[in-house]
Amino acid sequence: MDLTSRIRNADSPHFYFILGELISSTDQDHFALNMLKLIDKLLPVTALTLCEWTLDKSNTHLTDIKPLGNAGAPADIPALNASRPAHNPQLLKEVLEMEGSLLIRVNARTKGARRAAHQCTLVSRDGSRRCVVTLYRSHTQKDFSLSELSLLKNLSEALLPLIESYAQFSRQSTLRKMGSWMATLVTNQEPTHIHREFEKRLALCDITLSTREQEVCLGLLNGRTVPEIAETLQLKNSSIETYLKRATAKLGVSGRHGLTKWMVGA
Fold this sequence. Notes:
Layout: H1 3-10, H2 13-24, H3 31-42, E1 47-55, E2 62-72, H4 89-97, E3 102-107, E4 118-126, E5 129-137, H5 146-183, H6 189-205, H7 211-221, H8 226-233, H9 237-251, H10 255-263
Antiparallel strand pairs: 1-2, 1-5, 3-4, 4-5
């Protein structure tokens, strides 16, 4: 399909129908699939992944990565997502240094897929957050051309606000789920899951808590009250409050609500 045909597709009624579906799905789980359908209408794309990176206040360090979904052919998505900083330090460097509202980057063929796939990454900047969209194209197709990159740049003016809206919905949805966990009785499996996620967040943020501080934080995240934690640890309520203050100070938040928001990356 040449560039003229693609532009003609962008003006077709069917394209606007797909765009409408994408707009209406910014609060739904199949947003990634609708985005793939829209982009594939203009240029060949076999898969995509969405995630949100959060930087510190100075925008010099990555503090969190939240996957937002994927769609398309699993064979073209590497087992180790090459858009993650651990596997793509050059992309991380460019994201940290980006000054504009959009970064478009074509990577070398990705490793980890069954057959190497072409890859293009779009990054939007909104304060300390970065929405990272990675597009994949099968090894049997040509790499992304300059005309296609130009088309993506123009398309991004419409797509990026939708991606940012979906990322906000995802954060709010996670907060609601966390609130639900804290409002219900905890099963035997949930503490293990929350403990594992808590340790991941601590490692990602390079924060060290004492054993008592971790026990208090995990108790609160598991829906327990201060008196219940105090009874379990055989401590005074005031001691539990002190450990909580020390822990949240290290995390850069305040109180139980701040702890919950930190846990989900909000």
